[in-house]
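User: Second chain of the day. Same drill as before.
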Amino acid sequence: MSDSVKHYWYQNPRLIVGIVFILALVGFAGWFSASEQEDPQFPYRNGFVSLTAPNMTIAQLRDAAVVPLERTLSNIDEVSTYQSRIKNGNAVINIELHEHIYDTDTVWERIKDDITSKQSDMLGISANIVDRAQDTQGIVIAITQPSDILAKRALAIELRTELEQLSTIRSVNLVGDPHEQIVIDYTLKAMQEFGVTPEQIAQRLSSTSGRGASFQAGGITTNTNPLGRLQSIDDIKNSQVSLDNANPVSLSTIADIYYRPNPIAPEQFMVNGQRVVGLAISLPANTVRVTEVGDAIRQVVEEFNLRFANNPAKIVLFQPKWTKKRKSDLLNSLATGCIAVAVILILLMSVRTAIVVVVTIPAIALSALGFFTAAGGVLHQMTIAGLVISLGLMVDNSIVMAEKILQLMDKGKSHLEASKLAVKDLYKPLATATITTIAAFLPMLLAKGSVADFISTIPILVILCISLSYLIALSFVPVMANCLFQSRHESAKRQSQFSVIGNRIAQFSLANPKTVIIVMLGVLILIPLLPSATGEFFPKTNRNQGYVDIQLPLGSDITKTANLAQQISQYIQTLDFVTQTLTFSGSSGPRFYYNLVQQPGESHIARVVFEVTEETIVGEVVEQFNTLLPQAFDGALILAREFGQGPPIESPIEIRLISNQTEANLKAAEDVFMLLNEQTDTAHVRRDYSYGVVQLNMLIEQQSLKQVGLNESALADYLAWQGTGLHLSDLTFKTEPITLLLQDTSSNQTVERIMSTQIVDHKNQFLPISAFVNAQLVGEKAVETRRNGREELRILSDVTSGTDESILLESLQPALLAIAKKHGVTLQFGGELEESQEANSALLLALPAGIILLFIALILQFNSYKLTVLVMMTIPFSIVGAPIMLSLVGVPFGFMSLLGILALVGIVVNTAILLIEKSIEGIIDGHNKDAAIRLAVSNRLRAIMLTTITTIIGMLPLTSGESPLWPPLAWTVIGGLISSTLMMLYIMPILMSWLIEPNRYKNRINVSLQ
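Assistant: Same format as last time:
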């Protein structure tokens, strides 16, 4: 009889095995050749415009540049938010595009064009547009030797040049640049002796680049060298200045001239308390293998160090190490899960059957990886997580197909007949089950926004694996079955045991529907009463690193900030478990981890990154630091934190007050601050604004100034000379520009010294500045912040351990809204609440697409609204067990738990479809409805248990993995699987008994008999 079975091309064993082998080979090659990185890369939706205008006040800079640029940005539809931060002399406008924008390059080109067109109206203001602010500077190198900071800078520049030869590097930037200066140290005493004014020195050195000339003679063009160009410090020293009634003298005669680092350089970088110069390296996103580029960078550094006796270059932050670790950890989880699944299958099935199913796991996984990498997919922790999550799902179709073939062989069918009939009977229900699983993951795939982008490869890999598992089940499994399957003995006994148990479960449910439903309702009622763990919506990461953010009062200078940061760093270093500290003062440092909040160009800000031994628990260290450091160091806000996942969040609670009425806005902000500060569940409540800083207001007597032949420009030169220095020029005779500065370093820069400074009038007489200027100390804004064109004040706060900020804010919302209404301001919530709402909204907006696909698949399968509704009624089964399991293991419900619930939907729906299909098949075979349902449960029980157990086993390695990212997802899936399996076995028979109409299928039998 077997000879009469027709062979189709898709049943050709050599063809099928060959295709599967080739696909697996492509996947294997892709694993070792595809681009890789630690985390997914987001589209460039964030950037900023940096404005520099020396000596401009906040009001001047706002009116001349910030407001015009804000109006320009408001006309660009793709821009979601623009937030300005204005200080004296500089401003930053942070720009965020809408979450649905993916063609970001086009938008940024338009932004650049529009801002460039406005620059001609912004005299004296330079604008720098950065559209790659999201780039991670994952590798940081420190130059630790020699002791001289400018020598370190020179070595850093030399090493940067060598690193830039690597084509796989996007950019290399200096960190903690001391900014080399040449200072003409000209004292007030020297001016009184020689009579040369600062203005005269500035005029003498006004043209430092020089001028050349060209000559043509005899058909040849000859150029001269630039005459007057300053090409060394000696040229400056030898520059001649004229004296009254005397011969000109060299500049070095009247002033000391020397190199120095800028004493108020905007940033400083220290490693283990020692000041260094660093290099922060950015790599191109999605186009390189980070570990290989890391090896190349190591090699360059090692070769560089060989040229010196003291090995000056040291890699202090190295992202490729973490990329390799993430990949290794998840790969171990995948391998452990595969081995465990294989063991379970062997225990619950025959060895031969288990081999068939187990072989499909690498075949599916490698084939999916082959398609993914061939299409340009990037390997990172979310890619491998997608394979781990797919582990239980990808064997389901193979188990069902293998079970069906064995059942048909038990009825006397040959290998080939059984395979053909199994494919014929199952291709449609398995297709429906596959489509419904895809529908469950479709919202994750279609969701837009940063959070959705972070997890986008998970649904891609799951959908690939599920689709390939369907094809493998219809082709590769029958081929393997023909080669390996035999008549069942021990496995038949196991099957009969499962059948007996399944029959008893179905019989109990059908006989006691009220009891079963009451128990189910009781469980549902108890769920809200369970204790739930509180925690952040986005979990932490598992680095043996943390950081301490330091914030002094606005207006604090870089020296004060750096000194405090160094003291805190030294305090941390004294602890035995701390292996390294990196201190960044004047900014938050390079963005070496994607989740870090960036705060560039803030003289009152510092960050200390600490690294601990592998066995140390970072969370406990952070709690210890948050207790000890504020007690040990007064006068600053000190916050220790762990590295986290999800979007960068400055604080869990962020409340924004927005209004153009400054006084009303300030009163509202103070009321909000007091309200939050009174709460026992809040911690480190702080203002992101200040009442003001001291400013020296100069009132000039214009008439007196004109009478002595001076003007405001000359007066400003005198003041700058006695202050931080009069900028003369930027010299370019080295690789990096060198600032040429005129300064009286003997000045203590107090108000008394400034007002007593002597100036020279048109009669060469010395007069004090106080003769023309009245000085007043007044309070002025230290910073002005704006959001979307209106003034904004922010209140930030952390929460105490165990507090859910969303619940806290919900309880405070009436009071907060009352404050906003009282003062007539707009109130907005930021922080973790805003990000979690955006993440949930992204999935919910895409949810209808999944529901529609699920509905279409079910209607095509059953052609019945009742059965479609029946299947959809099983979806809540997956939700019941998740909160119970999370409560038992003490894991908070967060974003990854939400993903776990979506993953569960496909598994639950698949089981429901196959149970309904098997029940209908029993009715068509002549059984009554209850008997058909019992038969369906008894026949499907082993497949259901195998799917449940294999999925749980596949998830277990993630529950004990080092990364805190995966346990919420894994425990959600495990808890949901347990509850859905129990409820499916006990509730589903009752629902099928209520909604399946036997007459409909009996009529189908009669029609076929006629």
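The two ends are 27 Å apart (CA to CA).

User: Great, on to the next one.
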